[in-house]
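Re: zinc ion structure - here you go.
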Amino acid sequence: MISGGALKFGTDSAFQLELQRRVDEYFQVTGRRRRDCWEMYLKTAILLAGLAVTYLLLVFVAHAWWQSVPLAVLLGLAAAGIGFNIQHDGGHQAYSDHPWINKLAAMTLDLVGGSSYLWHYKHVVIHHTYVNVTGYDSDLNLGIFGRVTPHQRRLTFHRWQYLYLWPLYGFLAIRWQLVDDFRRLIAGRIGSHRIRRPTGWDLAFLVAGKVTFFACAFGVPMLLHPVNVVLIHYVITAVVLGTTLAVVFQVAHCVEEAAFPLPSARTGRLERAWAVHQTETTVDFARHSRVVAWLLGGLNFQIEHHLFPRISHVNYPAISKLVEQACRDFGVAYTEHRSFRDGVIAHFRWLRRMGRPNTNCLLRQPGTAASV
Ligand SMILES: [Zn+2]
């Protein structure tokens, strides 16, 4: 587990220690591996082959819109699958015990247009440490367009955010690929957090990643097709990718069952201990669907992921039973939606609620169990 940062958490670590003990015991008794699981290597081969075949068909074979448009949609889904499954485990060092394998897996993000260097700070350091803490977790910051926590300022037009935010989610990947990475690099910060600018090999990999992506997305296709055709297919692919990434992550944290705690004004400390905080700010979905777990890289087991980010996601279904039981034993809220659809509806409801005036009084208090 990782824990803590500049913001301090509650000090009662009994839940975390007992949970760690039960999970350690599970791996000891079953002999299963935490990382380097054969399922991951097989999945990596399938997804990378899927991305390559789809890209090659789209750029070199398709000759009519009814072939190229479905291929562009598939390419967006394949890129999302690589992000969820390979890059995410690699970036968390949950793929392998060998750092270079994790590095290679993490760099599949560069292949699909995002910098793995910057993602490490944005996701692993900032989001995972400060999850759902307004002003700290930069994933909650949608600019003026959205209010997703009760502690953000409400603007009049947020009343309609439950309608207009969905199409805007589609632009996430385009902004990320073309604007945000460069802006963060120049500013040397993500949200309110300062980051170390890349040097040496980190910088070389970052530049090589961007050059490879731009060559694959624009350079090579423009040698064979008109510019407007390339741009239209880029937008289709990126909108599918952006919408998929945004919705999967929002369903895990921005729903009415998740807590949005703030540090105490007096002590500057969050009331709940680190592991309790991670559990209560996160919601699982579709835990019984093997298809969803395979496609989303275990991100439907977000509670388990936030508690054990360095364990490969193929172990999450088994671990989730231990986590759920430990939560019951310690009176910690463990929340899930039965299906992905239920999770999406919960996010829709949350957006509508956050867009209405006077929502602060409806807050769920940390530690109040809520199950769906
Ligand atoms: Zn993560």
